[in-house]
Amino acid sequence: MKKIIAEFFGYFFANPLLPLLVILCSIFAMVFTGDGHFSRSKASEPEYVRTAAPLNVTVSSGTTAPQATTTSASSTASVTVFTMTVASATVTTEAVTTRTTAAPEEETTSAETTTEADTPDDTPEEHPQRPQVSDYTVYVGAESSNSGFYQEHLVILGDSIAYGFNAYGYIPREHNVAAESMALWNMGNYSFDVGGGSMGAVDAVKYTDSPLIYLSLGMNDIFGYTTDDYANKLYALAQQLVDNIPDTTVVIGAITPVSANNYYTGNDRIDGFNSAIESTVEANGSPQILFFNANAVLKDPNTGALAASVSGGDGLHISGASYGYLLNSMFNMLDAYDVKARIEAHDSKYD
Fold it and tell me: Which of 308, 324, 306, 320 is nearest to 44 (CA)?
């Protein structure tokens, strides 16, 4: 046997073409049959330059996930009138501009210096300063005439899917309180710096003093809660945000769909969780906590799964263009409520 093996390797390495052929075949197999980055389709991105700065997030360990439970709810979330299917979408993301909110320059005056005798006894009360933000891409493809106004105030709280609003430049980093793998059960492990130093997620949102918050959590929670527990805890979080910013509007976004035969979960399960939170929002009837059916915006109506045109490539996350579709539909929904008036009332303290 040793003699046969020795003769084989002697013949194999005596011919320089055979080792080269083996190497080329190995590379070919890895590239075209593997499940790594080479074989994975690249996610589509909007045609503009990103303007958002990197996210500053701190994650600490210590909290364990809740025990997985079985849910009996399987009802499908109803499609509201504020939805837009991808198949009929006409929104474009090519026409964009960049908006910068900068600190006001100090004005100079030629008037003479006021003496102490000329100074009034009571000093006028100073207005609070609006938190400053970095550059972001203004979305001009939305149908609502108030889209720029809404986008200027929008703060995002959520998981990796919610983080896409910042990653693709739709909001400044100071309005992003979202991070990979964040969930209801582990939110206490995360801290954010949105301009006022490191702080927890709820405190970071409070620091922004935003009158418009988009809450998008749940993809990382659907194996740790029943549908009712999830809905109650998510609604309690939304109410906590309202308690911190009394004149804000919190929009709770539905969990987005996944591709068919997804490795992580199924759309029937996601629909059950979405139905529960929609029912909870409607039952409480708060004008400051709204439900937005983000799932229906991105779902293929024929398959009930994430539409291929807005898939991020892994069957779970969504493409950059998806966030434009979500904003367009959400802004249309906000126009049907008194959200704009509430935002303007909130802004009056900065005048």
Answer: 320
Please tell me whether residues 210 and 326 are part of one structural domain: yes
**Structural domain containing residue 14:** 2-31
**Domain shared by 19 and 92, yes or no:** no
Q: The domain spanning residue 264 has which CATH number?
A: 3.40.50.1110
For residue 128, what pLDDT band results from cuts at 50, 70 and 90? Answer: confident
Q: Of all helices (H) and strands (E), which one includes residue 134?
A: none
Residue closest to 249 by CA, chosen among 283, 281, 210: 210
37 is a domain residue: no
Strands (E), the chain: 57-59, 96-99, 136-139, 154-158, 176-178, 190-193, 198-200, 212-216, 249-253, 289-292
- What total of structural domains would you count in the chain? 2
Looking at residue 140, its pLDDT comes to 82
Cα separation, 5 vs 217, whole angstroms: 60
Could you read off the pLDDT of 262-271 as tens digits, one per residue?
889 999 999 9
Contacts 24+ apart (CB under 8 A), 119-126: none
Is the pLDDT at 300 greater than 80? The verdict is yes
* Confidence (pLDDT) at 131: 87
Give a yes or no: residue 38 inside a domain: no
The C-alpha atoms of residue 330 and residue 250 are separated, in whole angstroms, by 12
Please check whether residue 275 is in contact with residue 230, taking contact to mean a CB–CB distance below 8 angstroms. Answer: no
pLDDT digit string, tens, across residues 17-56? 666 666 665 655 444 433 332 233 333 333 333 333 334 4
